[in-house]
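Data card: per-record layout.
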Amino acid sequence: MKRRQFIKLFGCVAAATMGVSREIAAQPAPAGEAVMAWMITIPPTWFDPSTAPPQITPFGIIYALHDALVRPLPGQKMGNSLAESWAESPDGLTYEFKLRQGLKFHNGDDLTAEDVKFSFERYRGAAARELKAHVRGVEVVDPLRVRFVLNEPWPDFMTFYGTTATAAGIVLPKRYVTQVGDEGFRKHPIGAGPYKFVSHTPGVEVIFEAYAGYWRLVPSVKRLVMRSVTDGSTRVAMLKRGEADMAFLLEGTDAESVTHDQRLSLEATRHASAMWIEFADQWDPKSPWHDRRVRLAATHALDRRMISETACLGYCPTLGVIVPPVMDFALQVEPPRYDPQKAKQLLAEAGYPNGFDAGDFTPLTGFSTAGEAVVNYLNEVGIRVKMRTMERATFYAAWQEKKLRGLFLTAAGSSGNAASRIEAFVYSKGSHAYGGYPDIDALFEQQARERDPAKREALLHRIQQLTLDRVMFAPIWSTRVLIGVGPRVADHTINLVPLSIWPSYEDMRLK
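The structure for this 511-residue chain is written out next.
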C-alpha cells in the first residue's frame, strides 16, 4: 500500500487461513535434492540477518531460512509476506502491520508481534543507525498487530524495512534467540522461511530441508545443498557432470563454456546491482587519490565495454553512477569515456608524468576476471597496481570496518532506491562510507524528510551528480550475474523475484 487513509484493514481472516491450510495440505510432498555451487565460502554470520551488510549475497541464505513482514516476492518488488496487510497513517508517522494467523517458526513456536518488535530492536546491520534514528518506537498492539511510530515522516521507511536494502524486516523467534544466544543461533538457526536448517560444514556446504508449514507454498524440492566451490571452472565441471544443478557467478571463459553445452543454459540476472572502484584514500590529503585529477585519470583509463565483453560476455551494461538505472530516482547518465591519453595527461597535470605505484588492488571475490582487466587498464596508463585477493565475507567485513585501503573493486546488489544506495555508500554516516561532504549530507537529510516524489527525485539527482563532479567513485557496470543451470532443473525461477539475484526457492522445480 502507498500513503492512504489509515483505516481498519484487519478483520477476521479465519476462513482465508483455513483455505490456505487446505491448499498446503493438498500440495504434493517435497521431493528430490538440488545442489547449488556457490562462488564463496558461506559464513555462519549470514544465518543471522541482524548483522547483514547492504549486499544481496547474504539473502541467498536469508530468504531460504527466514521470512519478513513484507519482502520482494514473485512479480512484486515488495509484497505482503508474514504480514497479510499494512497501512500508513495520513501524516506518515505510523505504520501498522497485521500478521497472518497461524504462523509458526521451524521449531513450532508461534510467530507473533512480540517477535517482530524483538527482531527490529535487535537489528544492527546495514542502515541500522538510519532506521533507529527515524523510528521512535515499536508497539505491540495485540499478538497479531504491531505498530511502528516514527519521529517525523520518512517516505523511505518501507524501502529500508521491506526490501533487501536491509534485513531489518526479517522476523526471528524471540524465545529461541534469547535462550541460545547469538552464537547458539548461528550454530543452529531457526526461522520462518520455506526451508529449515539441517547442517553446516564450515567451508564445505550448508544443507536445508523443505518446511512443510511454510505459509505461502510448500517447496517442491525437499533438500537444498549450498556447496562452497570458489573456483569457477570447478563449478562448471560439476554442472556438466551432474554434481550441481546451479552454478552461481560465472565469468569469462567459464560462462562461455556453459553456452557450448546444449544440456545446460546460462541465465543472466536482472537485479539492482552496480560495480565500481572505491577510492578509499581520497579523503587523505597525503594520498595521490586526494587529487581529483588522479581519480578522473583512473575513470578514463577503463574500457568498460571491453571489461563487460571479457568478464560478463557483454551482458553487463556500462554504468555512469553507482545507483543502477533500474532503481527509483536513479540519475540516467553515460559512463566516462575510455580515453587513455586523457588519463595520462591528467596524471602529468597532477605531478605524475611517469605514473605512480598505487599499491594493492582488491577485487570482490568472484570477479577476478573483471579485476584482472581493471588492473591491466590502470597499469597501461601508469597507475601501477598489484591484484590482491580476499575471501568474500572477509572482504565485506574489512570494507565495513574501513580496513580496505588504496583501490578496491566492489559491488552492491541490494534493492531499494537511490536513497538507500546513497545512504550506505555516499552519506558520510553510512555503514560503508569512507568519508563524505557536508553539502551532500545536508541534501541527503533534506530528501529523507521530503514527501513530494518530484522534489525528492531532484534532490537525489543532485547528490548523484555531485558524486560525478567530485569523482567519488569509478563506476564500471550494472552487474548481471551469470548462472549456469543444469538439465535436471525444470524451473530455475531466476528473475522471478524482481531485482533479485536468487531463485525463488519455494517456487523452484526439478524435472
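Known properties of this structure: The first strand starts at residue 31 and ends at 38. Residues 453-469 form the longest helix (17 residues).

See the next section for split statistics.
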